[in-house]
Records
---
Amino acid sequence: METTALSALSRSTFKALPLATVLALGLSLPAAAEETLRAITAFPKSMVFTESFERYVAYVNEKGKGVIQIEYIGGPEMFPQNQQVDAVRRGVVDMYYGPLAYYLGSMPEADAWTGSNVSPMEARENGGLAIMQEAARKKLGVFINGQLDGGVKFHIYTIDEPKRTEDGGFDFDGLRIRTSPLYTSFFESLGIIPVNMPVTDVYTGLERHSFDGTGWPSMGIEDLSWDKFLNYRIDPGFFQTDLAVVTNLEKYDGLSDEAKELLTRLTAEYEQISYDYFQEATAKTEEKVKASGMQFLAIEGEAKEKFLDAAYGKVWERMQGAGSEYYDALRSAYYKE
């Protein structure tokens, strides 16, 4: 019955039949086709964060067989880092993994992840992620699937030891430090001269001592071999990694309900997996770079509180100054006083 009836119907006619008619004819509904999302990353393949994204891809592909798959096709060699989300928006590729901070000019709400002192899992539960998803749809034209590799803090790394100040801090005035939009305003408040430079050019810059150091997470320095030149790390760490997975809106909205539900659940699960992984990996990395000679220098006393207040304050001040309509809701969700 099924074969005969189906052969008598064109594909377009079958798709147009009401569900009740399909069931009455004894026809079986066609299985949903497996969807594949083509993904790019902001970082080179050798980086620890790209390796984490590859584990995310493997996790989704293993548990999403027959429903949803991700194909990792390359990194910044394909598109400049600050143009990758636009490539996703235009549908040239389907998915991006990397910092949201590259797109602060279009979406100032990206600072919510930078200035966050809660975990991605907490923000997913308290509604923070939903607000970010709404802002990204409106301002970047993409869907945010989640925040991977959260909880990794940033530090200032220097080639030479900075001078101490009387209050227990350091004198950064006049130092040329490689920066990103993530922490440029904070660095400027410390008297640092920001140096804008792609990740791929930093090694050569450090080798030539054309600047004095860099801002960077507590992970990944050794993957890029920057630890050959950077001898000091300034503590405490500040901010939080803002590594997003985003998908083209048309592609995401066109997924089956099953694929959306599965991708959402697996991304949420991997947020926790990657968070836990990087807590352990950070501790191991610290031991490794210390063993290779890097010294950790702590800001102490009141200077430490002033340092952190300046860091987080600049982030939320920047978003508020940009006139974000989501400022109050995002600050409530992502920053606990």
---
Amino acid sequence: NDGTPLEGFRAELIDHLKSTRKVPTGEIGMSEREVQQFSFVRAINALANPTDSRAQKAAAFEFEASRSACEKQGRETRGILVPADVIKRDLSVGTTTAGGHTVSTDLLAASFIDLLRNRSYMMQMATVLNGLNGNVAIPRQTGGATAYWVAEAGAPTESQQAFDQVTLSPKTLGAFTDFSRKLLIQSSIGVESFVRGDLARVLALELDRAALHGSGSSNQPTGIAATSGIGSVVGGTNGLAPTYAHIIQLETEVAVDNADIGSLAYVTNAKVRGKLKGTEKAGSTGMFVWGEGGSLNGYNAVVTNQVASNLVKGGSGAVCSAIFFGNWKDLLIGMWSGVDLLVDPYTASTTGTVRVVAMQDVDIAVRHPESFAAMLDALTT
């Protein structure tokens, strides 16, 4: 009505939808106070003692939150579904390395020594799709129309765009931990936050690893390294020490496909970083491949030992490392639910041990394989 051109109207409409459309997140709208109030321990106790009325009453809030999460996601659970709101945030007294060191009258709980773990970055770098339901197919254009030069009064040849789909389907990631009732009663550290944090970290680290090296078989998602169509930089028949030329080639593999846009960065492990810090760009220049401030040839470089250092190439043995480069926003991580907690009080009931099983439905895909390149045979020794 106002005479706005079609393209202008489309742009305004998209901006309007972005500002008004509520994007599914899988959350149920818990306040910060309610998130803090949600107790894994109360839920575990109630599930472990289904005939204990006090335990059931104490966990009323947790069960109500679980019901709301199940209703929103249109699913059922055999235990309790921990809402996504809460997720944003072997244990036994008899074994010192599995919980016994947490029981002490003089324990400095604030100085509790956590396990050294690999750094997890993929959830921060990737595009995370929350609150999914059923299988997901995202349309993707794979080819465009063709332009032709024509003679006067001539007509161009008809051409069409081509499309395919990027698909995501839920794959279940699970972990379990055992802890004793004595630990729950005696421990001077917060068992609540300890159990919650440990299960969350275990799941997050495996999801992180699968984003890079998931095989696509044996119920695993397909990670970047196993994705068909990514750029490939080959060192040698039996692997090769990475050089400045390999780094340039990784960038070129992405750039020649017009994919060198967005959140570009390198991801590799500590062994490769150590090797490249001592590798000169050219002989006798004193200029090393791995730059100061955590940069690699001008791009941000992330170091995590989630990146494999035990890959095999030819007769090298399991000593090769991976180096990835790409637009990490084109890595898609789909999340179908919060964490599904199942409690098994029977497997080790004679010792008073309760087993807690945590499961989450996730999948991994890439928007464009061309957005990534990898060297999978980098030798560091």
